[in-house]
Write a structure and sequence with these properties.
Blueprint lengths: L1 H30 L1 E2 L5 E2 L3 H23 L13 H17 L5 H9 L2 H12 L5 H12 L1
Helix pairs in contact: 2-3
């Protein structure tokens, strides 16, 4: 049990370090001039999204070849396109937002989206969530 908790803490720490580093690099790329002080700002944020998704595709393909998972007969592949496109567009919007607000502000706004998503699920999808889930969404949103 202790080893599991240690591993969980290590993984949590490494995920946070990775995301903070990635965020700092994103903000640095989009808020600095190239070449320094005299050049233009990086304007092709969709190129960053494409590059990110391209290398994710390469890495996931390598993992797929390495792990050789069995294919499920009940999986409908096109249904994965909806969250995929949504994720791609949200990344592009995040890069564009970094031109106007700082990375910590962008991250706080993104973390608060859980509460409105739950609210829309309740109003439009007739989903029910326990009170605990609403409290967790508010605590995450507050930061």
């Amino acid at each position: 049990r202790t080893k599991v908790i240690q591993r969980l803490l290590f993984c949590s720490l490494m995920l946070n370090v990775t995301f903070v580093t990635w965020g700092a690099i994103q903000e640095r790329m989009l808020t600095r001039r190239y070449p320094r002080h005299t050049g233009e700002y990086f304007t092709y944020s969709y190129a960053l999204v494409f590059t990110n998704r391209f290398w994710t595709l390469i890495m996931s393909g390598c993992m797929w070849l390495y792990l050789k998972p069995r294919r499920s007969q009940s999986t409908v592949l096109y249904e994965y396109s909806f969250p995929s496109i949504s994720n791609m567009l949200s990344s592009w919007c995040q890069y564009e937002a970094l031109r106007y607000v700082s990375f910590p502000a962008t991250t706080l706004f993104k973390s608060f989206k859980l509460a409105p998503v739950m609210l829309m699920g309740k109003l439009l999808g007739n989903k029910s969530y326990p009170a605990y889930d609403y409290m967790v969404a508010v605590v995450i949103g507050i930061g």
